[in-house]
Design a protein that fits this description.
Elements (H helix, E strand, L loop, with lengths): L1 H27 L16 E8 L9 E10 L5 E9 L8 E2 L22 E2 L19 E2 L5 E2 L1 E3 L19 E9 L6 H4 L4
Antiparallel strand pairs: 1-2, 2-8, 3-5, 3-9, 4-8, 6-7
């Protein structure tokens, strides 16, 4: 009987210790969960353009080319553009002006930089579009057609443009972007300063 009492006391102590430990452990251990959702910043752009090519390349012909960049990503970005002539000789035959007018985004285009790019001077917000790289300067040809670009009739030295020297060409538009940081300028973003 004495042995039975000792076993029951020990069993009771173990039961009390187990319940106490479980209650104490539950009380001291708490857990909670917080879910943090992160969306990756997407730096994406697309070139949009209004383009009306001339029917025939002749001195004085005017045509329209208005390339713009749209930010299709979800973060602000800096943009730059190149306008390369497929036949580099043909650039000297074209009249065009770079658009330096400040647009609704507060930006404008720089002159061509030594690296060949034109830089947009304002951060481009998501879903915003730059102004056209080429200004709205209006050239009119002899038949009354207008455009913001024109095949010259005379070169810088006064020499008349020989139509036989005009060849078909493309103006290739290439754009790049980089994510914009707070307080950063386009010069710093692109390593110009």
């Amino acid at each position: 009987m004495k042995k039975k009492k000792i076993v029951l006391i020990l069993a009771g102590c173990l039961l009390i210790a187990g319940v106490s430990f479980g209650a104490t452990y539950s009380y001291m251990k708490a857990s909670d969960e917080v879910v943090n959702n992160f969306e990756i910043g997407r730096n994406e752009i697309e070139v949009t353009e209004e383009y009306e090519p001339p029917e025939k390349l002749t001195p004085g012909v005017a045509f329209t080319k208005k390339p713009c960049v749209k930010n299709t990503g979800n973060i602000a970005c800096w943009v730059r553009m190149r306008a390369d002539f497929s036949d580099s000789e043909m650039e000297k035959f074209c009249n065009f002006t770079i658009n330096k007018t400040v647009d609704s985004n507060g930006g404008s285009w720089t002159e061509k930089q030594p690296d060949g790019y034109y830089y947009y001077t304002q951060k481009l917000a998501p879903n915003a579009t730059t102004s056209s790289l080429f200004a709205e300067t209006e050239y009119t040809n002899s038949s009354g057609e207008t455009g913001n670009m024109q095949i010259k009739e005379t070169l810088a030295g006064g020499e008349k443009v020989d139509e036989s020297k005009l060849v078909n060409f493309d103006i290739l538009i290439y754009a790049e972007s980089c994510g914009a940081k707070e307080g950063e300028t386009y010069e710093k973003a692109w390593g110009l300063s």
